[in-house]
Prior knowledge:
- By secondary structure, this protein is α+β, with helices and mostly antiparallel strands.
- The protein is about 45% helix and about 15% strand.
- A hairpin with a 2-residue loop joins strand 5 and strand 6.
Amino acid sequence: MARRNGSNVVGDLNELRVAQLLLEHGIAINALTASDTGWDLHCHVPDGLICGASRAGKDSWRLSGRSVHIQVKTSPHGRLQVGTVRGWLAGTTSGVPTFMFGRLRETQVFSAPTDLGTWLRRTTQHSDDEGNRGYTYTGKDTTKQTGLQTHPYKESRFPSVLQLWVSYPQIAMGYPNLTPWMNHEANSDEAIEDLLADLVVCVWADMQYNRSTDDYVLEKSVTDLFEAAGFDAPDALANKLMTGHTGIHDVTYNDDSVSRNLVSTAVASSIGSQNPQQSAEALLAKLRRLHVTNAAIPNGK
């Protein structure tokens, strides 16, 4: 007969607690075989931003057809299989992100795929061993363990974080600051500004803009993107981006043609070439809606 111990029970209870949190967000969960490094929970994500699903009564919601995997850990210190984390990251870029949930000083926390990617890069600097490697939420990097960044789980914010990752996994991977921005851990909009600057290059490349293009046309294109992204004073921000010491300044006044090759594949692939301006504006507008909507309040108000 199989044997169990207290650690087995604690692990199961932690998984149940996390499952309860996720169910309240309208997520449908398939539990997978328990493993120290495998996926604990396979989750089907809803279309909307939901909190308190158990209070919905007969109201229903639609699942999006998108999935995430959740790994639940008991301790702020533990071990991860290097090869398994590589697999998680490969799955993320393919559209099925993996999050790791844990507890830190009695607080529920999670690590996003970007955090797991950083852990993987740093841990392989210490060793090329593909086996188990230590992680820690609070300790220092050593030859035996590597720090793993966490984010506080917030009931009102996690639905938006999920939608960021299932809607734009490659962009979320390419711009690590988008996750803490979406989780309201910082007030700065620098995360979305960096993305916007790269979107400008994609739009201009597809529109075949160059230094001979009228300045008004160029500036209006940038202004409309800042406006779609929900920034105050979009005209002033567009002018700053156009004339400051930035990559956009170099692109605008360079003799070479503007090319999508100047930005990451993740950004370039997210913008349709048929209507690049509208496509970029829609992406930025959705990110801003996710950022400002409080899922814990009906209608986000």
